[in-house]
Amino acid sequence: AQSVAQPEDQVNVAEGNPLTVKCTYSVSGNPYLFWYVQYPNRGLQFLLKYITGDNLVKGSYGFEAEFNKSQTSFHLKKPSALVSDSALYFCAVRDRNNAGNMLTFGGGTRLMVKP
Amino acid sequence: EAQVTQNPRYLITVTGKKLTVTCSQNMNHEYMSWYRQDPGLGLRQIYYSMNVEVTDKGDVPEGYKVSRKEKRNFPLILESPSPNQTSLYFCASSLGGIQYFGAGTRLSVL
Asked: CA of A6 to nearest chain B CA: how many angstroms apart?
């Protein structure tokens, strides 16, 4: 079985400060890892993914995430937060050996960026 | 424009009245899936389809049906809706592991 934990329901950060949204995962094999963002009244949008290779992955809107195999983590980061980054963020994992392509999502973390 | 289209966006119904939520994608993706989103639970997969006429259960399939007669369409059917199916539903298609989501259907079952 595969699972994802996002330990913070909400993260508050001031505009211009760095932000981190935490994610840890559990899979039996090697993981594919994803971050998605959801703005109000919208579907989820893909931000970035880790498949293989460099542990630091860069994605859309200046976001990046670091894959840490020993800590089974894939935290989302951004050096300087914008008010427009305020949204709901989801981490997701898929076992590479999962032929069904099933993606398991975390419970989501609401990011609030204050001016 | 590449997109996944769901209809309706909002639906209020009563217990036991059959309903269908349609989903269509114009990206020629083989893989499609349905999720429900509930507060604190994230998204949970209901059903997925790897190709035409191939469907399989996700994490929470009870009370739902799907069909995949054409590549572009993947309707979600609730034969006898119950209040615990009140939720926000998303359809998605996938290519290269990346999922492309529709705008969502907010369903209330009274």
From this structure: 10
